[in-house]
Amino acid sequence: MNEVIDMLMVEDNRRLCQVFQDYFTDRDEFNVVGVAHDGEKGLNMIRENSIDVLILDLILPHIDGIGVMERLDAAELKDDLTVIVVSAFMKENVAARLSQLGVDYYVLKPFSFSDLKKRIKEMVQLNNQQVEKKLAVIDLNDGQQDNDENEINLEKKISEVLHNLGVPAHIKGYLYLKEAIGLVIEEVELLGAVTKKLYPQVAEEFDTTSSRVERAIRHAVDVVWENGNREELEKYFANKHDASGDCPPNSQFIAEIAERMRFEVDQ
C-alpha cells in the first residue's frame, strides 16, 4: 500500500470541491491530484494522472457519472481504482448499474468528511489486498455538520425539489437553477437584481456568460412547465400563478422555490 493516497474529485458543486481540497490537503496521508467539474474533464485527468481514489458525482455536465464509469470500464482503467460515487439520491436500478461497473461505494449526500476519510483508507487497503467487494450504499452523515456541511445539505434539498418538479438533470439549466436558488436563499436581495447580479454570479461559478445562464434557465423552466410534475408545480405556484397556464418568468420561478425553502430552513 502506498503511503500517500492520490485522489481526484469529479463534482459540479465547486463549493463542495473546495471543502474537499481544504480538508484533505492538510493531511499528509492524502494527495489531492485535482478536481474536475464535468465528466469529460474528469476522464482526461484520470487518463493523465495516477489516481488511487475517485470521488464521483452522478449528475455532471457533458458526461454524467455513469457515463464516466462506462468509459473507464471500456478502457480498462478501473481495475486499480477505488471509486466512491456521491449523490443526493439512491435508486436501486442506478445502484445495480454502478455495481456492474465496479463502483465500490455509493455515498449519500450530505456526508461527514471525517467519516469519508476513514472509509477511503479502509477501501484502499481492501483493494490492495485484492479482497472481493460488493457495492455498499452508505450514509456518512454523523450529525456533526459545520457550515460547509450545511451547504451540502441545502444542495441536497434543492436537488430533491428540482427532481420532484421534473427538471431534467442533464440540461445546463438544471445546474444554473440549482445555483441560483441557493444564492437567493442565502441573499434574497438578489431577486431585485436578477440580471445585474444573480445571473453574473451564476455565470462566474460556471465560467460562462450571463446571457447563456438566462437562456438555459429559461429553457429549463419551459421544459418543466410543459412536461413536469403538475402536482408538485401546484404546491409552489397555485396561489400566485396558474400552474396550468402561462409559464412564469425565471425570477418568479426561482423566487417561489427559494421562498418555500427559506421558510423550511428557518424552521
Automatic annotation (TrEMBL):
Keywords noted in UniProt: Activator, Calcium, Cytoplasm, DNA-binding, Metal-binding, Phosphoprotein, Repressor, Sporulation, Transcription, Transcription regulation, Two-component regulatory system
Chief location category: cytoplasm
InterPro entries: Bact_response_regulator (IPR050595), CheY-like_superfamily (IPR011006), Sig_transdc_resp-reg_C-effctor (IPR016032), Sig_transdc_resp-reg_receiver (IPR001789), Spo0A_C (IPR014879), Spore_0_A (IPR012052), WH-like_DNA-bd_sf (IPR036388)
UniProt cross-references to Pfam families, sorted A to Z: Response_reg (PF00072), Spo0A_C (PF08769)
Limits of the Response regulatory domain: 6-124
BP GO terms, sorted: detection of stimulus; phosphorelay signal transduction system; regulation of sporulation resulting in formation of a cellular spore; sporulation resulting in formation of a cellular spore
Cofactors named for this entry: Ca(2+)
Positions contributing to Ca(2+) binding: D12, D57
UniProt function note: May play the central regulatory role in sporulation. It may be an element of the effector pathway responsible for the activation of sporulation genes in response to nutritional stress. Spo0A may act in concert with spo0H (a sigma factor) to control the expression of some genes that are critical to the sporulation process.
Protein name: Stage 0 sporulation protein A homolog
CC annotations in GO: cytoplasm
Record note on cofactor: Binds 1 Ca(2+) ion per subunit.
Annotated localization: Cytoplasm
Taxonomic classification: Bacteria, Bacillati, Bacillota, Clostridia, Halanaerobiales
Coiled-coil region list: none
Residues found modified as 4-aspartylphosphate: D57
GO molecular function terms listed in the Swiss-Prot or TrEMBL record: calcium ion binding; DNA binding; DNA-binding transcription factor activity
